[in-house]
Design goal:
This protein has 339 residues and is of the alpha/beta class. The chain has 13 helices and eleven strands. Bound molecules: (2S)-2-hydroxybutanedioic acid (LMR).
Length: 339
């Protein structure tokens, strides 16, 4: 008899502990805010939603991911500051925007025609050199988790862009990268850094005459409604880095980390398998609207662009050092055209 009373008392005491202060014993979920600047229908938007599903599944609900698309939480530059402050836990920005983090080396991948070839781009982002650059991000409190390849850039404008001289005097929107600034100036254009979330209105009101981007962004942001011409130039590349706040990431419990690592891996695989198709489909869809005059550079026309733009590679030796650039060539398999 005594044993059963004692047992009841222990159970009663344990129940009291569990619900002391009206709180349940199940801890509140860890909130992961994932902010990005593109449409939910763009490759990055879809990969973010998949990451949410997988992260919540593989952590058995210990994590809740809140996705904020289309600059709804933070715009380009703001989001990097918010990540470093720990106000947001996940971003996947273009690596052309890492300058404000104080890691200027990532601009090097904006060198014209360096990463045009898909195999060169994939080889580069998987090279040991990226591991060294990742360390520089970690020193700034940013943990790179993966790279998402969103393919080659094309140009849009309200005039045809066939030969380099067509850019002369045009106000062209660029991302915040010193190399992209140099590319625009080499073409005789006037570069203007504008946040992606403000680009549609800037094109619509004539603040800028044109921009360069991947077709899936041009499609999902409806830039074809405010631009008359599109040139398939494949002169640059859009590579994202899925990044988190290092202090937040290192402080996660081991079981949560392994669940999130699995979600990162599978959403990265999804992104790299679907972005190329989405960009190819976007070009077809943009053409079908009939609102844009499309032009694919011929080999001869492309050579004229390469000849015009290769001096930027040489000019940038002053910023990155000749050896660093030559190492990027070697790691990516890029062979600079003989001038
Ligand atoms: C841009 O700013 O043009 C792109 O980097 C936006 C994005 O995240 O795709």
């Amino acid at each position: 008899m005594k044993a059963s009373v004692a047992k009841l008392l222990v159970l009663a005491f344990a129940a009291a502990l569990l619900f002391a202060g009206g709180k349940s014993a199940v801890a509140d979920p860890i909130i992961v805010k994932f902010s990005h600047v593109v449409s939910p229908d763009a490759p990055k938007g879809k990969a973010a939603l998949l990451f949410k599903q997988l992260a919540e599944k593989y952590t058995n609900g210990k994590v809740t991911v809140e996705v904020y698309p289309n600059s709804s939480l933070y715009k380009d530059k703001e989001e990097l500051e918010a990540l470093q402050l720990g106000s947001v836990q996940l971003l996947a920005p273009s690596i052309s925007k890492f300058g404000p983090l104080g890691v200027k080396e990532f601009d090097v991948f904006d060198l014209p025609f360096l990463m045009t070839d898909d195999s060169h781009a994939r080889q580069m982002m998987a090279s040991p050199m990226i591991g060294e650059l990742n360390k520089k991000l970690e020193d700034k409190g940013v943990e790179p988790l993966a790279y998402w390849d969103n393919g080659a850039h094309v140009y849009t404008a309200n005039v045809p862009l066939i030969v380099p001289d067509d850019f002369r005097g045009l106000k062209m929107r660029i991302q915040g990268s010193k190399v992209l600034d140099a590319v625009a100036r080499q073409l005789g254009a006037i570069p203007q850094i504008i946040a992606f979330g403000e680009l549609y209105q800037s094109l619509q009101t004539g603040v800028v005459d044109g921009e360069d981007n991947v077709p899936s962004n041009i499609w999902t942001q409806k830039f074809y409604d405010v631009q008359k011409h599109l040139t398939v130039s494949n002169h640059g590349r859009l590579t994202y880095s899925l990044i988190t706040n290092k202090k937040f990431w290192d402080g996660l419990p081991a079981d949560v980390r392994s669940g999130l690592d699995r979600a990162v891996k599978e959403s990265t695989q999804f992104f790299n398998e679907t972005a190329a198709k989405d960009n190819a489909d976007a070009l077809v869809q943009i053409k079908a609207t009939g609102r844009v005059q499309m032009h694919v550079l011929t080999e001869t026309e492309k050579q004229a662009w390469v000849t015009k733009l290769m001096p930027v590679h040489k000019d940038m030796q002053g910023r990155f050092g000749k050896d660093f650039i030559e190492r990027v060539y070697k790691e990516s398999g890029f062979v600079p055209p003989q001038s």
